[in-house]
Automatic annotation (TrEMBL):
InterPro entries named in the record: COPS7/eIF3m (IPR045237), PCI_dom (IPR000717)
Protein name: COP9 signalosome complex subunit 7a
Similarity comment: Belongs to the CSN7/EIF3M family. CSN7 subfamily.
Region of interest (Disordered), residue spans: 208-274
GO CC annotation, single: COP9 signalosome
Pfam family, one: CSN7_HB_subdom
This protein's UniProt keywords: Signalosome
Gene (name only): COPS7A
Compositional bias of kind Basic and acidic residues: 213-230
KW Ion transport (keyword) present: no
């Protein structure tokens, strides 16, 4: 059991064994108690649910519903629908209202909070925020000069049935968007793989052509050297042995297409043989 639910446990035990006025007293105590910020389990207790059909205590049931699912503005619309609130009730209801706002917005201007929480000064507002942070309801930073609260993390409140429908709809939208994004990523990955395959084939074809050009040039060089050797003529500096030829090819020698000649790198040194 979580710490938040554990704080409610004593009131759940009392609700199981009390009815009428005693059950109404459990509601008043639970909604004012320190550390208790979830109430849906208490609402589901049979003795507590029976209060909504009792004219003497139906306001207490609405009070519990107010603290579970609603905000300070709901209370101010119809304060006579609830029993009188103590200072502890009002403070907690402000904290729960702040929690609801933080669940919807990550940046909350002081002007908005002052109006919604019905506080009289910036200092009073910041006290509500600080108490909420210490209570573990949210984490964030107050920017006094900018007059804004930036929320980093926020706890959850009890979920009403209408909230569950909204959450389901949001999750369905998220799932649809996620599938769309994944489909787009799969298409992009397939396109990149196809491009890489085409490029690899192109490189392989180019390398094959280059090897054939090298072989053709080597064969012509060997044939020319063989003819000169048979004729007994001197070997001029333009003649190259195999090692020279390979070295010059590696250093940038260009094969002249269609003529069978080659142009050596001008930086290469030629060797003259007798």
């Amino acid at each position: 059991m979580s710490e938040r639910n554990a704080s409610l446990e004593p009131f759940l035990l009392l609700a199981r064994s009390t009815k009428g006025a005693a059950a109404a007293k459990v509601v008043l105590d639970a909604t004012a108690a320190n550390g208790v910020y979830v109430f849906s389990e208490l609402l589901e207790q049979p003795n507590i649910k029976a209060l909504q059909n009792d004219p003497s205590y139906d306001k207490h049931y609405r009070l519990l519903d107010l603290f579970a699912y609603r905000t300070l503005s709901d209370y101010r619309q119809s304060p006579d629908s609830y029993p009188p609130l103590t200072a502890a009730h009002q403070t907690k209801l402000k904290q729960l209202t702040l929690l609801s706002l933080a669940l919807q917005h990550r940046s909350l201007p002081y002007a908005q909070l002052t109006e919604v929480l019905q506080v009289g000064s910036t200092r009073e507002l910041e006290n509500v925020i600080i108490d909420s942070i210490y209570a573990g309801l949210l984490r964030g930073k107050m920017h006094h000069h900018e007059e804004v609260l930036h929320v980093d993390w926020v706890s959850s409140r009890d979920l009403a049935r209408d909230d569950l429908v909204k959450i389901q709809s949001s999750l369905n939208n998220w799932s649809t968007n996620a599938q769309t994004i994944l489909g787009a990523l799969d298409e992009q990955i397939a396109r990149i793989r196809s491009q890489n395959l085409v490029e690899a084939e192109h490189n392989a074809t180019y390398q094959k052509q280059l090897d054939q050009s090298f072989k053709h040039a080597r064969d012509e060089q060997a044939a020319r050297r063989s003819e000169k050797s048979k004729s007994g003529g001197p070997k001029y500096s333009a003649d190259w042995d195999d090692e020279d030829f390979d070295g010059h090819l590696a250093s940038g020698e260009r094969i002249l297409p269609g003529r069978g000649d080659h142009l050596p790198d001008p930086r290469a040194k030629k060797r003259v043989r007798d």
